[in-house]
Each structure stands twice: as C-alpha cells, then as structure tokens.
Amino acid sequence: MAMIFFRRSMIKLIILILTLAAIISLRYNGEFDRLTNSSRELSIDLGGGQCKWTAPIYDVPTDTKFFKTLIAGFPSGDKRLTFVQMEALTGLSTRDEWDFEFLGATNQPFVKANYPHHEGIWGWEGVQLGQVAMIVRNIKRSLVEYHDILWDIGYAQTFDQAFENIENLYQERPPLEDFLKWRDIRIFDEIHWYSWFIDYYMEEGLMRDMFNHEQTTPEHWRKIMLPNHFTKEELRYKWYISDPTIVSPNYDPMCATIEKGCYPVSIISAEKLVVPETGPAEGRKIAELINGKEGFDDYMIDEKAWDCIWNELIINKRGLKTFIDRDGLREESYDFSFEMFNEMWYELDRLITKYGGKDDQVAKDLVELLEEHQDSLGITPAPFVRMSYEELMTYHLELKPFFPHQKPLSHHTDAYFPHQVAFNSTFLRNLKVTDILGPKTRAMYEKMNKNEDEGVSSDENRKRDVVVSEEHRKMGVKEKFDFSKFDEVLKQHRLDQIKNMKDLFGF
Length: 507
Hints:
By secondary structure, the chain is mainly α.
C-alpha cells in the first residue's frame, strides 16, 4: 500500500515538474520570439491592476489594419514619452517620420512627427492615418531639450549623419557654453516656430509665415520650412505677398490624407505625464486614444492595468531612455534672458487669446496648459521689449553662423525686385536640383546651369564635378547612401536601449 502511494506521489511529482518545465519553456521561447520579433507579446496583465512591462515588437504584422495615430509635437523629446506609453499598452512599436521617408512604409500604428517644423518631414506620405494627438510641453523646457537633441546628434544636417549618432540620444546634457551659443542665434526664431507649430495643427494645416503669422502662399510656405537653405532676407514676407488682406487661405494637402484631419483629437501634456499627481490620468488619455480603435482588440492590455503601465514606465523607468534619464546638468541650468522670456510670454499670449474663445475640449485643454506655461515664466511682460518683425529678421546678422555649412548670415537685397521673387546667380549656385523651388526659381536655376554648361569645355566640366565631389566629401555628403541595413540597425538599437532588463522573463 505504501509502495502504491509512493508511486502515485512520484507520478504526480513528475507530471508537475514536466508541466512547470513546459510553462517555463513556452514563456522563455515566447520572450525569445518577441525579442527576435517573430511573434507578438503584450505587456502582461497580472490581474488586480498589476502588470509586467515587455518591450514592443519591431516588425508589426502586415495583415492587420490599424487605426493609426500621428503623434505630433515641437521637437523636444516629449513625443517619446507618449509613444512608449502606447507601445507598452499594445506591444506594438512606433515609427519615426524620417524612417518612413528613408526606409519605406511599414504598418506601425503610431507615427512620431516634428512636421511641419523644419526638423520634420512628411515621410509617411501614402500611409493612411486616422487621427492626430498633439503633445504640448512648456516652451522653455521644449527649447532646452530641442537643443539637447541637436547636440546629441552632433547638429547633424542629414538623416544618415543623425543616424550615426543615434546611440548618443538622451545620455547626458550638453556643456552650457554650447547651449548659449545656439540660444543666442536661434532662440527668437524657434520661439516663433513653437507657436507657429501649434497654429498649424489647430488651424488644420493653414499656411502661415512663422515670423508675422500672416497667411502666405504655398511657394513661400515650403521655403520657410527650410531655414538652413534660405537666408531670412530671401524669406521676407514682402517678396511673396504684396497685400496680406487679399491672400486666399492655403492648406497643407497632408491634412486631407488624415481621416479626422489635422485638428488634434487630444492634447497631451509632457509635464503632467511625468509627475505622480497627474501622470496616471494623462496616461489614461493616451490609452483612450487607441482603446477600441480598429485593429487593437487583440493587442490592447486590460484597462485595469493602464495605471500600472504608467508606473512601470515613469516610476520604474522601463523601456527606452527619455529626456528624464539624462545625466549631468539639470534642465533648469539652461536659462534665458528677459528679452527671450518676454518673447515667449507674448507668443503664448497670442495663442491663448486666439484659442480662448473656442468651446471644444481640445482648445480648452490647450489654453489651460499654455496659461500654466505662461505663468511659469515668472516675468512681468514688457510690450516695448517685444521683437518687431524687422528685428526678428535681422538680429542674427551680428552673429556668426551656428550650424555646420550654414549659409552666411547676410542681406541679399539686390536679389529681388518689387513684387517679383527672383534670385541672383550667387544664390542660385548655392541651390541643388533636389531643393524645393518655385516655378520661376526652377526656370532660372535650369537656365543658369544650361548657360554655364554651354560656356565651358568638357574638361572644365569634369574639373568642376571633381571640385563639387570633394566639397561634398568635406561636408560629409554621401552621394549614394545605402539605407538597406538601417531597419536591422534600428531594430537592434531598440533592444539595446531597453533598460532594467532584470525580471524580463518573469523569474
């Protein structure tokens, strides 16, 4: 009898061991498959509001149609805080606008974009998006972090140059002297870019000049998005618009490709997302952007675990590095002059006045945030210190160019005639055939090149080509850059960036 009991006990023990081994094997293999992107694995809902964060898959299934979200914001690192929440809630990864442009279209349901800021690009053209979520961060902090990112990537001017420095992102803060040099030559421009960016989405892609905020033409609008290609003098409003009162509204065609248009369906606060008092509620706003939308039924974690996901990412710092992980100086160490704060105050005031009369929740949320940001500047504004349009267009002339290979900061008043946009031959030689040019400029550019080619011998042409190639080499320009391996590198980078990997397999 004792022997039978012993045998039965041993059989039960063996069955238990085999069962545990199978569970562990399946769990380990599931994690291994997820890390190698061959299967889907959600962040784990442990029940009772508990969860375990897992990294998102890079290769999103192509056989599922997702209601896609554009995560738009001024370049400052805050969008990353938002999309890592979406990734943890669904197990699906995000794709950057530049990745779409250079690496091709994929089925990622979340698209991160600085567009139409000059650091962005409409790289997802042809990809059907459903909605826009606009991320709004305190203007002062946005401008500091924007420079931090530029410093991380070595002030890169091309996609491949930026990609070469991708490992430097969010590691540490730059030396104060580097920030001050950039601040003095760029800050007034970017203050106006900041408010212009918000106008763009709140007005559903209406084309405006960012310095005087008047409506403008498509030709002018396309050029002002390339501030390192054109001098401010070449971008003066009067060269394109003789009378602002008769300009017809022009809208960016990109907005017509989004199912719900460019007007944001929600405003997400980067500041509120990272503090315990408001963070979980802001995290829920992010979750509500995608909960119940097409394609997410099999991916979205249970609502009871949403707060836990926020806690895992913000408090326990799982996932990708963000601006809250930087080492070195504190963000508050990077300061501005009163004149700069004053300009920020008045640009925020312009937006508050403009959208304060709207009664929809998006506008109300925006105005409430901007009022908080305005108060945080801690100044008594001085209207006589505000920058006039003329000052905005000329203050930089006393300073040296900041970005590598930037055009000299000089006037080109001889390049224009009243009510006719024309460029002199010096300016035209600085352009490339791939630049965005208006029809008149394109014709002049091609005519000039044709005349030059007809006036020199083939030997001289070859010499000129050698000089151009050598100049490109000095500038770091790769004439035929091979992007075929970038997706694999990006995939590995995401895995390498994941922090706190202990307990990854649940042991």
